[in-house]
Automatic annotation (TrEMBL):
Signal peptide: none annotated. Residues 8-25 form the Cytosolic fatty-acid binding proteins domain. This is FABP6 protein. PROSITE patterns: FABP. Belongs to the calycin superfamily. Fatty-acid binding protein (FABP) family. InterPro entries: Calycin, Fatty_acid-bd, ILBP. GO terms for molecular function: lipid binding. The gene is Fabp6.
C-alpha cells in the first residue's frame, strides 16, 4: 500500500481534454458547462486508509465521497449518479473505477493531479457463423 499524504485543500488550476472527456462519459451539456473552468475546490481528509473526498462547486453545491482503500463504498459522480466502487491504491495513486471511466489521483509537486480516462470498450464479432 502506498503511503501518500493526500490531506489538504486544493483549488482547480487547469484541465486537459475536458470536452472530449465529458462527451465520452455522457455528461449532460448543462453539467459540462457548469464544470468548465470553474474554480472547484477539492478537500481531502485522510486518516490512514480512510478518506473523505469533497468537491466544492461554485454556487454552494458539493459532492462528497467517503471510502476506505480496498473496501467497497457507495460513491457519487460529478453528475450525481450513485454507484458502488472499491477504491485501490496503486503505485501511490488512488484508483477508482467510475461507471464510464477510471479515475486516478496523486500528489505531484505538492499539487493534487486527477486523471479520468474512459474505460476501454471491447467489441467482439460472432465467429460461430464462418461466413461473417
Amino acid at each position: 500500500q502506498g503511503n501518500m499524504a493526500f490531506a489538504g485543500k486544493y483549488e482547480f488550476e487547469g484541465d486537459e481534454n475536458y470536452d472530449e472527456f465529458v462527451k465520452a462519459i455522457g455528461l449532460p451539456s448543462d453539467k459540462a458547462e457548469m464544470g468548465r473552468n470553474c474554480k472547484i475546490v477539492t478537500e481531502v481528509v485522510q486518516n490512514g486508509n480512510d478518506f473523505t473526498w469533497t468537491q466544492h462547486f461554485p454556487g454552494g453545491r458539493t459532492t462528497t465521497n467517503t471510502f476506505t482503500i480496498g473496501k467497497e463504498a457507495d460513491m457519487e459522480t460529478m453528475g450525481a449518479r450513485k454507484f458502488k466502487a472499491t477504491v485501490k491504491m496503486e503505485d501511490g495513486k488512488i484508483v477508482a473505477d467510475f461507471p464510464n471511466y477510471r479515475h486516478t489521483a496523486e500528489i505531484s509537486g505538492g499539487k493534487l493531479v486527477e486523471v479520468s480516462s474512459q474505460i476501454s470498450k471491447l467489441v467482439y464479432k460472432n465467429k460461430t457463423n464462418k461466413n461473417q
